[in-house]
Each structure stands twice: as structure tokens, then as C-alpha cells.
Amino acid sequence: MKPAWSQTIQTLLQELDVNPEQGLSVSEVESRLHKYGLNSIQARKKVSRLSLLFKQFHNPVIYVLVFAGVIAFALNEVLDGSAILAIVILNATIGFIQESKAEASIETLAAISSPKGRVLREGKVITVESVNICPGDILILEAGDYVVADARIIQARQLATEEAVLTGESLPVDKTLKPLKEDVSLGDRTNMVFASTAISRGTGKALVVATARNTEIGRIADLMDSAQKTETPLQKRLEGVSRRLLIAGIFVISLVVLLGLWSGQAWLEILMTALSLSVAAIPEGLPTVVTIALVVAVKRMSRKHALVRKMNAVETLGTADVICTDKTGTLTTGKMKVREVFPVEGQMDLLLKTMVICNNASLHAGGSGDTTEIALLEFAQSNGLDIPLIHENDQRVFEWSFDSIRKRMSVAARDDNGITIYVKGAPEAILSRCHMSHNELQQTHEQVSMLSQKGMRVLALASKSEPEQDFTEAKLESIESQLTFLGLVAMADPPRAETIPAIKKCQRAGIRIIMITGDHPQTAATIGSELGIIPSEAKTLTGVELDKLSELELRQVVEEVSIYARVSPENKLNLVNALKANNHIVAMTGDGVNDAPALKTADIGVAMGKGGTEVARQASSLVLTDDNFATIVDAVEEGRAVNGNIKRTLQYLLSTNLAELIFILMSTILGWPVPLLPINLLWLNLVTDGLPSLALAAEPVHESFLEHSKRPSAGSFFDRAFYQEMALVGVLITIMSMGIYYYGLTHFEVNMARSLAFSFIVYTILFRSFSCRSETLTFFEMKPDRNLILAVVLPVIFQLGMQESEFLLRLFKVVPIKIEHSFIILGLSVIPVTFVEVFKIWRRSRVDCK
């Protein structure tokens, strides 16, 4: 069957077997509700909280930590085991709280429909629950009504609807009755009204043609059901780290156990060594450190008007290389403004007066009424007009309201000089009624065409004097003729002042901006060019054109085209999927119900907090409280900073843990006693890893960080420089630790040797953190970080003070070290960090030479 918008009203009435003057009977409604079902969108089954809880333990790092904890308890090392399992439980709790707040999009979508609607049944207008409306019902529409089903308009008087929630169209859509082509886009179906939209003005009747899941809003619910959530880059990279650590840990532990069995060691000693290795191999604090890094970033972003619903969204933004953004209210102000006026010579005052009198809006309490008329009042007021005084001196006599056929509005007003008719409307509806010469008319039409090509909405204003009469009986054709042309007004939704520099900032950082809007293609292209997204001659594609492309063709197109207009929810979803298929990390912004599927499918969905719908917010990971594109850029910068912080923290954790692991492994191979006991390693991981790594994870964003930072890889934290530094640090600390341990074994008993090695590793790992603040800058080239200094100084003082406490010496199974030996150890521990800083300078000089 042909779509409803392409058929005549009579054909549809016959197909749905309904009398437009009587509506359906009660029995027929019951029959159709049984056939088509209730007019409601059922939400999918919720994920159980128990499933979410178990999900938090599905991680290789968690497996190893649990295993290490079990071994510790088996060996009666209660302190070690308790600390390890406490970390596991803390991480699972944080993850569970975050996950349990998500997955509410469909439930919210199901609840957005209006509870009641007015229909014509058995010749009477009645109000019914929206769930009881069925195909064939006749909706009765008037300004302020919420549309409860998709319906074909069969009667309209000055009818217009707000459809931004579905199409993104920023202006009210004037409605018509005539049939349209089958392939018109959603935003151009001007003879239809849609569920979840609102009537902005006028009255009408409409024949219901679709309910529930068959409506446009229902189709979006289907898309939401099918939209697949993908792992974030952070999750993928941490899983990669976990797998590598797990494999390396199992290999080393297995090797040590085999060596122990081969050399005839006792089982208890072998298990003690295995436990030490498992604790050394896995940075237990990594999940917590990552969470803390994200929490700190979330707090910083909240101060910049970005509320994070899912913590991983912060990091994902940092890896994004494409931002798909809506136009209205995000890149632009979301309000119509008068951009230019072109008054006829000597008519400026009357032009401004016409803006005020031929107007039904008000500036009271921030403005109410049609956005176009509010813009006219604001412009008139900014040019010195006293609007209340004009209304007092020029009393309205009669109004001929705007309608979609006449495309103009006229007002008769009386002042001391008599009656004046004030007219405003579309240029094609006004100019032909003005007394103008052929040349004047032609020049004005050319000017209108030029302004329209710039994406502006153009109004023509005119007036005339009229004798006193009964305007209720007056012929409108005569009233609106022989007008005096006053001039043109060009209006547009202007870009936000901060948007253009924000876009340039993104482009310098290697992030591509794609604008996806429901507006007219020419408007979209003009704004895109003005914002610097595309050159003026670049191609713009519409939703209808996108529908004709194959999946492969779409994947090619998204690499070339950056402006899309008149798009449907499916188009948005397909564009996001095509970009992801091309290995892009996609951030998608949106505010309407139509944006929700794409928001959910994108690597990160960004919803508008001020003007957006609850459905869009629930489908997103990030909510902008100021609906401002510049805020997204701040969030991207914060995301990249988090990536850098996590990467450098990971470098710190892995390089030092690698040194511990090799030190224990080499000592075992050489037949030396286990150099570090589990309690020593747990102290290392909690104090040396824990406090400095938290400070590194919370490193603030440096000035101009986004432009000078490199976009993180979505696949791995590791690159050549990462491996080089990790190997340098790991080998250097291992060699020095073994030298100190060997010296202790040959000159003192084993407990003193362990104490010397233990102190050296504590100090050198703490100092190592200073070199992890940046991959390229040395510690002395950066501003001091008070948090990191405290995180290093306090454990050093504690380690030195440990020598004076019998309780701590027994707890950590070490013996007192002479003061002179402590200072020697402190001096030696500075050597590895010095090597790393010199290595940075050398590596940077090689890059500069190239």
C-alpha cells in the first residue's frame, strides 16, 4: 500500500472505512484495538541487578587477584589476602553502581506519549486515553495539543506543528492537505502529524494511520532495541593489558614452580614464592586507579557544564576522531535572530513599527509566542522602539491570521491619523501585492534569492492606509492589495560566538566535525560553511539521497561529506554505523527522540540538558547542561588528558611491577632466598603504586593540551616509546636491586639483605613517579604538582620512620637499617629516574633532528 502522505484524503478514508463527519463507532474501535493492539510502546525486559553484579567480576585481572587472595588465606597470610580481596570488592561495587543507572532509554520512551487525546466518535468529540486510539480514528487538533498517533491531515486552518523532537527542524512546520511524493523525507511530510510532536498554532482534523510501534516514534523504539552497545576504547585497552599480564604472570609463576620442584624446594616455600610473584605481577590498584582518574575528570567536567552519566565516556571522548553534531541549539543559539534588514529609503521607522504591530508574540518573561515574531520584537526594541507605547497608541481593530495558503498576516490598527493595514509574510506573497516598478520588483526578487541561498529566512513587510469600515465584512483581497513595500528582513539562527573557535580547535587536534540536521539543505550548507566545517562549494546530502546508497557506498560517502540535511533517525543511525565500520571513534550529539538510537550506538552519545528530551539523555553517556558545542570540545580535551594520565599511570605501574617480577624471578633462578615477601610487595603496591599513581591519574589538564596532544590509539595503550621506557626502567631497577640484595647476602644475614633491597625499591619506585608526569617533558620543565610531591614525601618519611618502630618492623618482616645505609640507599634510588629524564631529552633531540 502506498504511504499515507502520498494518497488523497478520499482514498485513505475509503481504505480505513471511516466517515469523516461521524468517526468510528464504539464497536469498531474495540475491533480495531483487538486487531492492531493498544497505542503504546512496550519496553524491553530489564537487565537484572544480579546479572550486573556478576558482570563486574568478569575480568582477567580480577581472576588473578582472587586467586592470589585465596592463596594468601591458605598460607594464613590474612592481612595480604584481606587487602587483595578488599580491592576486588571496591572495584566491583563502583562498577555495579555505575551500570545500574543505565539501560533506561526504552522505559522512558514508552512513557512519553500523552495520556489523553480528543477524537471524533459516533459524531461526537470525546477525550480518550491515548492507548485506546486506533487506525481510522479522527483526531481533533488545536494549538497546544500533544499529537498521540501518526495521522494524515484532512482539515487544517493555519495549522503548524513543532517537530524538532523527531526531525531536528528548528522552525514550526506549516501543514497542508495536498498529497506528496512517496520518497519525501520525514521533515517534508507536511500533510502529516506525528506522535510525540505538538501543535504550535491553528486547528485541524487528522485521520490516524499508524499507532504504537508503527508510528515514527515507534520505529525509533525499534531502532533503540536493536542498537548495539559496544565496548569503550578504555575497556578494550584494559582488557588487552589484563590478558598480557595474565599470560605473563602465569608463565613466570609456572616457571618458578617448576624450578622449585626441580631443585627440591619444599611446597610451602614454592607456594610462598608463587604468591609473591602473583602479587608482583598484577598491579592490584589498577582498576581503582583508573576509576579514580575518571572520577576526578568527571568532577572537573561537571564544573565545565558537562555531566557524565557513564564514567568511561570521559576516556572515550579522548579517543574520538569524529564528532557528529546537531545544528540547532548546539552549533547555533537555537533562537531566530534578525541578521539583516533592507528598508526602502525613508521607511525604516514604519518597517520597525510593522514588526511590532503585525505580531502576536511578547517579550514578557523571556519571550513567548512564535520564535520568528519574538526575533522581530527583539530587533525593534534594540533599535529604540518603545513596544508598550506603540501598543497603547495603535489600537488593533482586526487581524487576518497567517495561513499556509496566503503565507502572510495582516493587522488593521487605529492611531490619531486613522486606520493603517500592516502586513508581513513570505516575499512571494507580499511583493506581487505592492505597487512597485518592474525594475524594483526584479531587484527585490534577486535580493530575496541571494539571501535565501545564504540559508536565511526572508520576510517582506508592507503597509497601506485604509478608510474606517467594518473589517469583519471587508474583502480580504481588496484589503491586501496596492500595498506600500517597506523592506525585507533576513533572519537566521546564528552560530554561537564560541562555536567557531571550538571547531577550529577540534580540527587542529585532528578531530573531524560532521553536522547532521533536520533543517533545509541550503540552510545546513550555509551554516556549515560559516562555521568552517566545510568550504562553501562542498557537497551536502539529504536523507532521501542517503536512502538510495548501499552499505558500501555509504561507507565511502561518510569519508567525503560532512553536512547532512533532512535526515531521518535511520539515516543518523546508519551514518554512525558507517563511520564505526571505517574504524572511527564517533561522538554523537542530539536532543530529540529521533537522536536516541544514534546516541546509543555511537561510541559516546552526548545529549542536550537544557533543550533535550529525557529519552535522548537516557540514551547518552554525557549530558551538556548548557547545550553548547564548545563544552563538547572541553570534554574531548579532558578525555585526552584522562587517556594520557591513565597511560602514564599504567607506565608507572607496569615498569615498576616488571622490575619487582624480574627481581624475584632472577633471584629464584640463581637460587637466592625469596627477596621480597608478600607483605613487602603488598606494601609496595599500596603505598608506592597507590598514592603516586592516584596523583598521576589526577594530573590537571595543561594549557592548549588538546591541540598539542596526540589522539590516543583506540586499540592499545602501548607504542614503541611506551615499551622503550618500560624496558629501561624495569631492567635498570632490577639490576640495581639485585646488586644491593647480593651485597646484603654477602655481607649480612638474609633479613638485612631483604630490608636493604626492600627500602631501595620503595624509594626508587616513589621517585620514579616524578618522571611519569609527561612522556616528553622532564620533571623540571613542568610546574610542581603538590599532590604528587606529598604522595612521594609522606611514604619516604614513613619508610625512614619504620626503622624506629618495633611493631612496623615485625609487621613488614624487616630489620633496622643503619642511618648511613639508609642515606646511601636514598642516593642510589635517584639514579633510575635520572636515567629516564635524560632518555626523554635524548629521544626529543632525535625527533627535532628529523
Walk me through this protein's architecture.
The strands form three sheets. An eight-stranded mixed beta sheet has the order 8-21-20-19-9-16-18-17, sandwiched between helices. Strands 1, 2, 3, 4, 5, 6 and 7 form a seven-stranded antiparallel beta sheet that branches. The protein has a six-stranded antiparallel beta sheet with strand order 10-15-14-13-12-11. It is of the alpha/beta class and 850 residues long. The protein contains 34 helices and 21 strands. The longest helix has 41 residues, at 629-669.
Short description:
With 850 residues, the protein is an alpha/beta fold.
Task: Summarize the topology.
Elements: H1 9-15, H2 26-36, H3 49-55, H4 60-74, H5 78-100, H6 105-110, E1 116-121, E2 124-129, E3 138-142, E4 150-162, H7 164-167, E5 173-174, E6 192-193, E7 198-210, H8 216-226, H9 233-263, H10 267-281, H11 286-302, E8 306-308, H12 312-319, E9 322-325, E10 337-343, H13 348-357, H14 371-382, H15 387-393, E11 395-400, E12 408-415, E13 418-425, H16 427-430, H17 438-453, E14 457-466, H18 476-479, E15 484-492, H19 499-508, E16 512-516, H20 521-531, E17 541-542, H21 543-547, H22 551-557, E18 563-565, H23 569-581, E19 586-590, H24 596-601, E20 604-608, H25 614-619, E21 622-624, H26 629-669, H27 678-697, H28 705-708, H29 720-747, H30 750-768, H31 786-801, H32 806-811, H33 819-828, H34 830-849
Parallel strand pairs: 9-16, 9-19, 16-18, 17-18, 19-20, 20-21
Antiparallel strand pairs: 1-2, 1-3, 3-7, 4-5, 4-6, 4-7, 8-21, 10-15, 11-12, 12-13, 13-14, 14-15
